[in-house]
Specification:
The structure is a single chain. By secondary structure, the chain is α+β, with helices and mostly antiparallel strands. The protein is built from 12 helices and 19 strands. It has 4 domains: 94 residues, Rossmann fold, CATH 3.40.50.20; 66 residues, ATP-grasp fold, A domain (Dna Ligase, domain 1); 129 residues, 2-Layer Sandwich (D-amino Acid Aminotransferase, Chain A, domain 1); 80 residues, Alpha-Beta Complex (Aldehyde Oxidoreductase, domain 3), CATH 3.90.1170. Pfam families: ATP-grasp_4, LAL_C2.
Length: 401
């Protein structure tokens, strides 16, 4: 049975690995939210304080390895990837290369790489969060709208689309409120329809599982829903696939899942971001629901040393799934959520989940993690799957005091 050291917590990975021929040790950061978690299924657990140094992480990994040799490193979340690289190097075990993690975390580095290789020429610039003049200069050169976002963050934190320079002060105030510790990446706005591409790689060969349709807030770019698989005419599909595979080659991805956000513009597809992980918002769960094989399990098995590429599902459009989100429209303390039971009983609904808890203070949605509830539904057509999820999520209400 292979022994995987999980660097940072991944509930989905652990839950879906039951029954596989692997066992996990875990190193994670502690906190109040961790105290109620059931960690009994792990071989061993080491809890570190939030300010633990990288060296402390590495020495904990070495300690485990001394008494129970580790076969593989599992860095299954973006927040864990940088330490996972260090851990793999210290223990001489496989993981993504350091450059892969750098170019997928640093959004400007990714842009520079794609520009240098002639893959995507989208204009971008790094500026300080208080350098409004440089953003105005960029907008004068490239035109509005422009997008401002953190150089390295997740969940659409602090992102704004600035349609005119009159909107810039408010956009920068939003950025400083939620991502003020980071530099600003300002980019030329890509006009078109946004999609994401879910892929799985092995030995540098990339297999596209599906393209996902995205529903987003036009102002904050926070996702309000997804539907998969998206069906394209063959020429457009091939252009998107080729762009994504070239992007994954450019960042040096050799193995594991990837989630690449793409804008289909009038001049063709353009890359927004790429990530060395499965898509969030239950995208992997929807792929497993429709395609049979579970991408989470395939990922764990590959980390443990198995070849899994032939088993990676490719969705054929014979069935569809959609997830839709809802959030409270006011600020205050959540008293209760009503309508979850009604939502789960509606046609085609697979699950309905609360994303906030009674007693929690809630307000404006500022990233993917501050949304209120979700509904996942399936159907024989994309339109019906979306409609089922939207109708069910509309039954959910937030009672706020």
């Amino acid at each position: 049975m292979k022994h995987i050291l999980m660097v940072g917590r991944s509930r989905e990975i652990f839950a879906r690995s039951r029954g596989l021929d692997v066992r996990f040790s875990l190193i994670l950061v502690g906190g109040a939210s961790r105290t109620a978690e059931d960690l009994s299924g792990y071989q061993r657990v080491i809890v570190l304080p939030p300010d633990a140094s990288v060296e402390e992480w590495l020495q904990c990994g070495q300690l485990i390895n001394t008494f129970d040799p580790i076969d593989a490193i599992g860095g299954f979340t973006e927040t864990a990837e940088k330490i996972a690289v260090d851990m793999a190097e210290r223990l001489a075990l496989p993981f993504h290369g350091r450059d892969v993690i750098h170019t997928t975390h640093d959004k400007f580095a990714m842009r520079e790489r794609l520009r240098s290789l002639g893959i995507d020429d989208t204009a971008s610039r790094i500026v300080a969060a208080d350098d409004e003049a440089s953003i105005r200069e960029f907008a004068a050169e490239h035109g509005c709208p422009v997008v401002i976002k953190p150089l390295s963050a997740r969940g659409s934190l602090g992102v704004s689309v600035v349609k005119s320079l009159e909107e810039l002060p408010a956009a920068l105030a939003w950025f400083r409120a939620w991502a003020g510790g980071q530099p600003v990446l300002v980019e030329k706005f890509l006009a078109g329809e946004e999609w994401s591409v879910e892929a799985f790689s092995e030995g540098g060969v990339h297999r596209i599982m599906c393209i996902t349709r995205k529903f987003k807030s036009p102002q904050t770019c926070i996702e309000t829903g997804h539907c998969l698989p998206a069906i394209f005419e063959e020429g457009a599909r091939q252009r998107i696939h080729a762009l994504v595979k070239s992007t994954l080659d450019a960042v040096g991805l050799q193995c594991g899942p990837s989630h690449t956000e793409v804008m289909m513009c009038a001049e063709g597809p353009r890359v927004i971001e790429t990530h060395t992980r499965l898509g969030g918002d239950r995208i992997a769960e929807m792929i497993a629901l429709l395609g049979g094989a579970d991408p989470y399990q395939l990922w764990v098995r590959q980390v443990a040393g198995e070849s899994v590429l032939p088993e990676v599902p490719v969705l054929d459009g014979s069935a569809f799934a959609s997830i839709q989100f809802t959030s409270p429209s006011c600020e205050g303390v959540l008293d209760r959520i009503e309508g979850l039971e009604q939502a789960i009983s509606m046609p085609g609904v697979v699950r309905a989940d609360a994303m906030v808890a009674p007693g929690q203070r809630i307000g404006a949605v500022h990233d993917s993690f501050s949304r209120g509830a979700s509904v996942l539904a399936r159907a024989s057509t994309a339109e019906e799957a979306v409609l089922r999820a939207q109708e069910a999520v509309a039954a959910i209400n937030f009672i706020v005091s």
